Amino acid sequence: MSAKKKKHEEHENHERWLVSYADFITLLFAFFVVMYATSTKNEEKEKTFEESIRAEMKLTVVGQGGRGQSAGDSIFGDILNPFDQFPKRGGPAEVKDYLERQIRRRMNDEERKKYGIEVRYDASGARISFAAESFFPSGSPKLKKSAVDALNMVGDILAKSDMRVMVEGHTDDTPVKTAEIASNWELASLRATSVVRYLINHQAVDPARLAAISYADQRPLVPNTTAENKAKNRRIDLLVSQ
Q1: Strand 68-70 vs strand 60-62: parallel, antiparallel, or unpaired?
Q2: Fewer Cβ atoms within 10 Å of its own Cβ: the N or the C terminal residue of the chain?
Q3: Helix or strand or coil: residue 228?
């Protein structure tokens, strides 16, 4: 009888570790529940804190004439808005989007149409295109006074970046020959150089980032079959690239 009782007690002792193990698992589960709850609470606190800061910053700054501006929007916009910063990374598409935004901020639709401004991109980079007639008299490489506004605008944008800028001169296929200009190659080259010199002398664009090149009539956008197409091909392109 005593032998059976002893054997039964040994069996009970052998399985007692399961109770301790179950307690341990329960405590461990409770620990992770507490940690998760604490983490969630902290995230909520951080979110609440951020919202309160933004709310406090949204103070109305009243200037002359009673017009106000949200200080919060202004400060956070200047600091946090990546769209106002020249993209240091990314491809030609990102640069093109940035250039379009900056140009639209500085010029309305009528002004952009006046200068024939178009922004596009390809594998080489993003291009700002200007109609040659808006910059130069016919057959001449001398800048018009009316070109100053457009050049100042684009120079202000480019001076804030560290990207390379290739100024390309393009013509149509109509031959040109004067005492000073032997062909479209010279005309396109001199026009591109005039733009480069202006950006250096009047907009402080780093000369090391600038270059001028002539393509003459060799890279038309459209066939030179109509007067309208010829005008489209006569242009100055600014190729902006990494």
Answers
A1: antiparallel
A2: N
A3: helix
- What b/e readout covers 197-209, taking b as 16+ CB neighbours within 10 angstroms? ebbeeebebeeeb
pTM attached to this predicted model: 0.64
Q: Write 116-122 long-range contacts (CB < 8 A, 24+).
A: 116/235, 117/150, 120/96, 121/92, 121/93, 121/95, 121/96, 122/92
How high is the mean pLDDT of the chain? 80
- Per-residue model confidence as pLDDT tens digits over 48-64: 655 554 554 444 333 44
Task: Tell me which residue has tokens 């060799």.
Answer: 218
User: Which tops the pLDDT comparison, 169 or 18?
Assistant: 169
Neighbours of 148 (CB within 10 A): 13
* CATH architecture group of domain 86-241: 2-Layer Sandwich (3.30)
What are the boundaries of each domain within the chain?
Answer: 1-80, 86-241
Confidence of residue 25 (pLDDT cuts 50, 70, 90): confident
Q: What is the residue-wise DSSP string for 185-204?
A: HHHHHHHHHHHHHHHHHHH-
